[in-house]
């Protein structure tokens, strides 16, 4: 008897398709509201791979050679043109073609040079317009991308990073350890508190509060 082993063919991943009905609805709605700007917005929405993997450079271990290499590979600065608030210390790059940089490994004692994140997650950080010396609370901080981005913008007098989920809290601590130099750690507090109670427990403590609980979808490391 001859036994023939049949190998199951690996299932092919179906490429995500843009729903034409939805896009047509958006076309009618937002072309009226946004005018000529809609063409740019549409291109961005229909090409998510070009903005999902932004490269945020770490100013505490600035990668000059990597920055040159990014330019050679066709990356461009995320912040182009005039913005109400855009610190020169924050450097973030995007590829004009779908491309993802490899993540750096966590090494105790060595600061990473860059952080991968969805470019959209920087918008609430810029909206805070953080200034040197201000006290800021990142209420749902894990995995740490926006806390890190805040520190690229300014030197806060006090940064409180809170995460209620214990598993994500460990991820947050590792992110801060991987990117922030030891002297700056003195102005950072990490906690595992219920955010609903922090206002009563620490009234009038913070100048600004960042609350955005969707990092499971938009942040990567």
UniProtKB/TrEMBL annotation:
Residue ranges annotated for the SAM-dependent MTase RsmB/NOP-type domain, each copy included: 45-221
Pfam families recorded: Methyltr_RsmB-F (PF01189)
Keywords attached to this entry: Methyltransferase, RNA-binding, S-adenosyl-L-methionine, Transferase
UniProt-listed Gene3D superfamilies: 6.20.240.40, Vaccinia Virus protein VP39 (3.40.50.150)
GO molecular function terms listed in the Swiss-Prot or TrEMBL record: RNA binding; RNA methyltransferase activity
InterPro entries in the cross-refs: MeTrfase_RsmB-F_NOP2_cat, MeTrfase_RsmB-F_NOP2_dom, RCMT, SAM-dependent_MTases_sf
Superkingdom as given in the UniProt entry: Eukaryota
GO CC entries: mitochondrial large ribosomal subunit
Record family assignment: Belongs to the class I-like SAM-binding methyltransferase superfamily. RsmB/NOP family.
Protein name, entry field: NSUN3
Organism: Cervus elaphus hippelaphus
């Amino acid at each position: 008897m001859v036994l023939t082993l049949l190998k199951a063919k690996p299932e092919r991943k179906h490429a995500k398709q843009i729903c034409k009905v939805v896009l047509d609805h958006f076309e009618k709605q937002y072309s009226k509201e946004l005018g000529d700007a809609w063409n740019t917005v549409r291109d961005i929405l229909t090409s998510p791979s070009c903005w999902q993997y932004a490269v945020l450079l770490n100013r505490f271990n600035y990668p000059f050679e990597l920055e040159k290499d990014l330019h050679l590979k066709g990356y461009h600065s995320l912040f182009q043109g005039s913005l109400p608030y855009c610190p020169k210390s924050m450097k973030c790059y995007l590829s004009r073609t779908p491309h993802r940089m490899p993540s750096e490994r966590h090494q105790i004692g060595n600061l990473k040079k860059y952080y991968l994140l969805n470019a959209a997650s920087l918008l609430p950080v810029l909206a805070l317009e953080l200034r040197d010396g201000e006290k800021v609370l990142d209420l749902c901080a894990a995995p740490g991308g926006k806390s890190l981005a805040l520190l690229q913008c300014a030197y806060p007098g006090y940064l409180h990073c809170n995460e209620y989920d214990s598993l994500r809290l460990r991820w947050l601590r590792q992110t801060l350890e991987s990117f922030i130099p030891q002297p700056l750690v003195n102005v950072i507090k990490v906690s595992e508190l219920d955010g609903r109670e922090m206002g009563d427990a620490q009234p009038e403590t913070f100048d600004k509060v960042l609350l955005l609980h969707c990092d499971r979808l938009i942040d990567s490391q």
